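Memo to structure team: turn this sequence into structure tokens by end of day. - J.P.
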Amino acid sequence: MVRMWLVTNGYPVRMFTGHASNITALACSPDGKILASADDSGTIILWDLAPGKLLKRMRGHGKGGIWSLTWSVESTVLVSGGADGTVRVWDVQLPNDANGQGKVVGEGGAGQKMEPSVSNVSGAGGKKKAKEVTVTSDQISAFPTKKSPVYNVMFTQQNLVLAGGAFLP
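Reply from structure team:
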């Protein structure tokens, strides 16, 4: 559950419920209209801050969940980083039939695999299978790291994405 308070007097304003596991990251869009919340099961929920309604539910991160969220300057793209060692770029555009009544308007989809451009070759001359990264219909793209969990992601003012994590040899 996410709670929102009015800082000037401490009164609670909203309570956002919809996650089935622990919330691990929050980010408000630069235009102030949408809140993104993420959990340790790999789910991102977009909320309309004014009425407090659920707008969209997105999935794609694997094991360990999502640890960081960041918005593009225009509030049109969301980027997430997580324990699965990927940085994922999400389309936050809502379908034209979204009515704001709190129903889930996006669930992802069957997805397709994105192969990393570099494949690992074993010492015996055989190829190791490349790490698979699933890209669902809500995602613009996904960038796998070698083995590093991604602890923090950030958009710059020039819409470049920075990602930081731990190197795990």
